[in-house]
Amino acid sequence: MGHVGFPELIAIMAILVIVPFWKIFIKAGFPGQLSLVLLVPVFGVLIIYYLAFAEWPTLQETGHQKIH
Question: What pTM, to 2 d.p., does this model score?
C-alpha cells in the first residue's frame, strides 16, 4: 500500500486550511487569495487577527453595523 510522506502530509494539511479560509475571505468581501498568507507561519496568525477585527466590505455593503 502507499505511504504518505511528510511533503504529502503538509500539502493535505495546507489544503484543509486554505480552502475553508478562501471561502471565508470571499464571503467577508476580501480576495480569496488572502488565505494563501496562512501558509506563512507568522503572517498566518496576523491575517486571522486582521480578519477578526477588520471592517468587512460585505457588511458595509449591506448596511450592517459594526460589532464591538
Answer: 0.73
